[in-house]
Design a protein that fits this description.
With 377 residues, the chain is an alpha/beta fold. The chain has helices spanning 9-14, 53-57, 62-88, 104-117, 130-138, 163-177, 198-220, 226-251, 259-284, 288-302, 325-338, 344-376, and strands spanning 96-101, 122-126, 144-149, 152-157, 182-185. Helix 7 packs antiparallel against helix 8 (226-251).
């Protein structure tokens, strides 16, 4: 007679579905399995309810979570303060173009006085008449010109270059000649842009939006195909251009260029910024966000010429005003609205070159990554 042990039918029914754990010497099971309520060393404990699982999945250890944000934010803030204070705390002109329409004797005396007061501050352009000087100002060849009127010097200036630029030129001419120099504004700002900063604010906002677009795109879908990402960029750029044109041109009359022109230029800026930020995020990995913010938001906007003309930037910053997307967009928006579209072609080509170059670089990176994956497989 055999002894049998009664079993619970419910337990037997579930037995085939129970996982078995190997007990032999070759077992790879964790000898110290995690216990309920036990957390890995330095891990963050979720003390805030209802946090989305993807956010929790990306959480770092407590030491990294405490130090990385401090270091990153402090580094970006330090660069921002250093660049903007260095550029704008005491701006002085360097090789600022300045026209003169006067007799040879008066022109020579004026140039000598200005050069003595501020060496290398001005590059002088002589004109045969006040009308010729006015034409040069209206086509953005020079921002201002000293002309003789009733035996006195008068400063013909383009107020559209910004009140700060005009006032600094007036102050320099008054100090150099020892006599008050009146200003005749031949290219005034539109009534909706009394301080001449609307172009800068519009550009800054679009650059910020382009940066945030790329960050959000890579956070939500880091493996999104380049074709789909580019389509998303185009939609964002078109919407950005339309939004700025509706607000800045239609509603506030702060951007004097035509509606279509504003839409096109701002759209190109949004596309170039988004493409550039995407490349930096793609190539720099975890450092992509701070690098993109420094390159586009800090250096890009500081050298845009929206606050002061590039001639007032320090020598180590001024070269960026020729190549950065915000500078190209500011130049294009300002010149289409005030200066008969002078230099607009080069500005538009700069924005297109940034867009195509960054997209081509991303395509190359994706192609190389695909070939490496295929080889490994």
């Amino acid at each position: 007679m055999h002894n049998t042990t009664p079993t619970d039918p419910r337990t037997d029914a579930a037995a085939p579905n129970r996982p078995t754990t190997p007990q032999g010497p070759d077992s790879s099971a964790d000898p110290h399995p995690e216990q309920p309520g036990r957390h890995p060393r330095h891990a963050l404990i979720d003390t805030e309810p209802h946090i989305a699982p993807p956010v929790l999945a990306a959480a770092a250890g407590i030491r990294k979570a405490m130090t990385v944000p401090v270091v990153t934010a402090l580094a970006i803030g330090t660069i921002f303060v250093a660049v903007y204070l260095a550029a704008f705390h005491a701006p002085t002109a360097r090789h600022q173009a300045l026209g003169i329409a006067a007799s040879d004797q008066v022109a020579a005396r004026t140039e000598l006085a200005l050069n003595t007061a501020a060496p290398d501050a001005y590059d002088f352009h002589r004109y045969t008449s006040p009308d010729a000087a006015r034409h040069a100002i209206e086509h953005d060849e020079v921002p201002a010109a000293l002309v003789t009127r009733d035996r006195r010097l008068v400063l013909l200036a383009a107020g559209a270059q910004g009140p700060s630029a005009v006032s600094s030129l007036q102050a320099a001419a008054t100090r150099a000649t020892g006599l008050p120099v009146a200003v005749d504004d031949v290219v005034p700002l539109v009534p909706g842009d009394a301080r001449g900063l609307s172009v800068f604010y519009a550009s800054f906002g679009v650059v910020l939006a382009g940066f945030l677009f790329s960050v959000a795109s890579y956070q939500i879908a880091p493996r999104l195909p380049l074709t789909a990402r580019t389509v998303s960029m185009v939609v964002f750029a078109a919407a950005s251009g339309l939004m700025v044109a509706l607000i800045g041109h239609q509603s506030l009359d702060a951007l004097p260029a035509s509606f279509i022109t504003v839409t096109a230029i701002v759209g190109l800026l949004a596309m170039a910024t988004a493409a550039a930020a995407s490349v930096l995020l793609r190539t720099c990995g975890p450092l992509g966000m701070p690098v993109a913010s420094v390159v586009l938001l800090i250096f890009g906007n500081a050298t845009s010429g929206g606050i002061l003309p590039p001639a007032f930037l320090p020598s180590w910053l001024s070269p960026l005003s020729e190549v950065m997307p915000p500078a190209a967009a500011v130049r294009a928006l300002r010149n289409t609205g005030y200066f008969h579209s002078a230099h607009v072609t080069s500005a538009v080509l700069t924005l297109i070159a940034w867009t195509l170059g960054c997209l081509a670089l991303q395509l190359t990176l994706d192609f190389s990554a695909g070939r490496r994956a295929a080889t490994a497989a």
